[in-house]
Amino acid sequence: xxxxxxxxxxxxxxxxxxxxIGTFVDDQGGYTSVAVAxxxxxxxxxxxxxxxxxxxQNRSADVQAVADxxxxxxxxxxxxxxxxxxxxxxxxLTMGMxxxxxxxxxxxxxAVPGLGAVGAxxxxxxxxxxxxxxxxxxxxxxxxxxxxxxxxxxxxxxSAAVAGASGQGGIDYVGCAVPFPHESQTDFSGLDxxxxxxxxxxxxxxxxxxxxRAKQAKEDADAARREGWLADCGDExxxxxxxxxxxASLPSAQNPHYASPETWSFGAGLRRARAxxxxxxxxxxxxxxxxxxLTDSAARKAFYDYALAEVRAGRFxxxxxGTVDIDLPELPANTxxxxxxxxYTDSRWPCTDEEGGRTLHSSAQCPxxxxxxxxxxxxxxxEAGSAKICPECDMDATxxxxxxxxxxxIDNGFExxxxxxxxxxxxxxxxxxxxxxxEGKIRxxxxxxxxxxxxxxxxxxxxxxxxxxxxxxxxxxxxGRGGATTSPASLARAFVESAELPAGxxxxxxxxxxxxxxxxxxxxxxxxxxxxxxxxxxxAGVLGSVGRLWGSLLQGYGSAADGLSxxxxxxxxxxxxIPGGSAAAWLRNKISQIVRAAGFExxxxxxRKPVLTNSQNVFDKxxxxxxxxxxxxxxxxxxxGSPADLARALGQQxxxxxxxxxxxxxxxxxxxxxxxxxxxxxxGDLLGAMTA
Length: 692
Known about the structure:
Oligomer: single chain
């Protein structure tokens, strides 16, 4: 029996060396050195082959990742522009709101007597804000149009930079993103529409003038009321109340005291006079039986009866429209004034037939009345010769005329203070009539003002610009990988042959989606805070009422209607001195109602962020076709060139409308100040940042 050789070989036959199982397995059943060496060689060859294959696969897939990054870079430019445009639109709208609210507040103030100057100044401030808003809107629309025309170039440059920077390990990439739509489709007409507030401004002047006249009329009425109160119960030491107490012992229930003009009315003085003359007429009696004493008492009694009848016929009525109807009689203070009253014409004096003829007496108890009765006569009859003066009582027109002469001329008489009251009542009635007339004019102007405010607000409430810049539907990136590249030498070429990575291309797309996790007004809040810091802590406009109003509207821009309504209510409720039921109060409430019913289109302020999407979605939105479009874009992509060249090769027209350096989109005026802050884009940074 033969055994195998130690090397596992067999003897050659016919000169040929043959390998048998013994070459790999020895006599004891173990593996020979040849078997182990061969196994190691095969394992190394397989491992190197797998590494080379993995390298090829990974490098092949990298072009898609680069295309994704390139598409996102293009969409990020669009997102940056959307932030700028939204901020500008917010400033335009809120400045218009602030201007109109300020104008409305000024119109309300103009309708308040005494606040005409404040109203005129407030209206002027509102007009300046609207003028600044118009200049800003016009320049903003012009600036944003230029930016949108330059967006395709910015997208190409930004995206091409990302593609070019993605190369590594000897692998180069070239490509850029193409925006869809290619050209701007934004309608800026809503942004720079003019808000015509001339009608509101024109109404302010006449309203201020009318309120000024109303103020003067009110002051005159207040002064007349105070004069009447002083005459009745306010002047010390003597007044109607004090005289009624001293001369007639009038009880306090009929003779009340009023502490101030505000608690008093001319009706109170009229009631006091009625009670006083009723008491004097009821208690009047002669102090003796002589003719002179009888005449004095009879004249007083006649005067008191006459005065009582007159004051009882007097009236004081306050109407709902603020006017008054006052008729307080002015009692005669001398003989001439007496002759113009019933005291002179009434036939009340007894007459008798005496030796000298028909004689007039002050009383039937006159010692001179000894003849038969001859009826009655008036003082006018006496002076006309129809009767003679009695030598005992000596009654004539002079006796009647002097009854109230002294008590009217000096302040110890009730009639002195009554005459002051009567004349004050006439001034009061005239002033209240003028006040009502001016308030009627103010109401008419207020109605015109509310209509003008409605029209101006309708201009402001036009639909907001619907942004549709290049790239609004999405950006499609086309990226190509450079020519054939061999696998690295480190992948053990002693065991396997080197692998070649062929040229390749990939397409990706990105669009903008709202970031639900971002607070809608964060950007605008930070903008206003930054502007406030720039303005400093002095008394400048951002810290003033108009600036604060604009700031609150700016930060509440996302819900424009609610923000404007709250701002209007807050500003108008802060106006002091507006009496309830007045034209100013009506206008204030009307403006608030108009604003609440305005129906401003709420703004979507959610931040936009780039997200990847199927390129077909972008093509469908743009109506650009199907997979053939992708193939065409890939075939057009050159192997090298500038970003502008790449964009043009892909069918995109690019141009720089912004120039070099920094481009000023618009000058932002700060309401309430003379300060303007430029909103600029750094062209060198490819429109990627907004600075203030």
